[in-house]
UniProtKB/TrEMBL annotation:
PANTHER family associated with the record: N-ACYLNEURAMINATE-9-PHOSPHATASE (PTHR46470:SF3)
Names of required cofactors: Mg(2+)
NCBIfam families assigned: CTE7, HAD-SF-IA-v1
Isomerase in keyword set: no
Record's protein name: N-acetylneuraminic acid phosphatase
Origin organism lineage: Eukaryota, Metazoa, Chordata, Craniata, Vertebrata
Pfam families found in the cross-reference section: Hydrolase
InterPro entries the record matches: HAD-like_hydrolase (IPR051400), HAD-like_sf (IPR036412), HAD-SF_hydro_IA (IPR006439), HAD-SF_hydro_IA_CTE7 (IPR011950), HAD_sf (IPR023214)
Alphabetically ordered keywords of this record: Hydrolase, Magnesium
Domain of life per record: Eukaryota
Length: 248
């Protein structure tokens, strides 16, 4: 780490600033209720949702082939057919997908304490939101949680040539803010993208949000710092700057 003070902080969005996983679970619960009450599905409702969850986790999206709405509706269509058999039911798949999506977006909110933290941090450093993912999906989340006003810039991986952990998206982010990689800290919950990317780009520091006390694999990238909540960040940044003052 260099001897300059932190000038900018890059934040991941999903499961760092907003509880995407929790919102998604709430969406699945609403679909289970729908399938059980309106369509008389029993345990199949949960099986279908579990299958969709697996498909989402393995999702490969290529914008040239189809839009994200068609792809994700197909996840539901396949899961229903795999579980129930018979002919494909696109109409039911669409109903499930849009209920899951709308419920999920309703629960994607910035907590008041996170808003307060971002507001205070921005008085001292520049803030950038750096999120991987398909353009439409991520822009809808950004709109839903109304986080635009807390950042100097927002960069969505799906709008760039490369996503995290490629160094290019970090250099692009630095250019947007008029800072050098050695001035910046990356904060995120994913070792393979957020932390590896920050290391690849030579950022001043990487901060891993490890909410559940997960033990990483030995092959995983090693973050400079580990915290259990994003709310621990201001104190950590202060300690990083204090080290700079002492070294100087």
């Amino acid at each position: 780490m260099g001897l300059s003070r932190v000038r900018a902080v890059f934040f991941d969005l999903d499961n760092t600033l907003i509880d995407t996983a929790g919102a998604s679970r709430k969406g699945m619960l609403e679909v289970i209720k729908l399938l059980q009450s309106k369509y008389n599905y029993k345990e199949e409702a949960e099986i279908i949702c579990n299958k969709v969850q697996v498909k989402l986790s393995k999702e490969c999206f290529h914008p040239s082939n189809m839009c994200i709405t068609d792809l994700r509706t197909s996840h539901w269509e396949e899961a229903i057919q795999e579980t129930k058999g018979g002919a494909a039911n696109r109409k039911l798949a669409e109903e499930c997908y849009f209920l899951w999506k709308s419920t999920r977006l309703q629960h994607m909110t910035l907590a008041e304490e996170v808003k307060a933290m971002l507001t205070e941090l921005r008085k001292e450093v520049r803030l950038l939101l750096l999120t991987n993912g398909e353009r439409q999906t991520q822009r809808e989340k950004i709109e839903a949680c109304a986080c635009q006003s807390y950042f100097d810039a927002i960069v969505v991986g799906g709008e760039q040539k490369e996503e995290k952990p490629a160094p290019s998206i970090f250099y692009y982010s630095c250019d947007l803010l008029g800072v050098q990689p050695g001035d910046c800290v990356m904060v995120g919950d994913t070792l393979e993208t957020d932390i590896q990317g920050g290391l690849n780009a030579g950022l001043k520091a990487t901060v891993w949000i490890n909410k559940n006390g997960m033990v990483p694999l030995k092959s995983s990238p090693t973050p400079h710092y580990i915290v259990s909540s994003v709310l621990e960040l201001p104190a950590l940044l202060h300690s990083i700057d204090c080290k700079v003052s002492v070294s100087a």
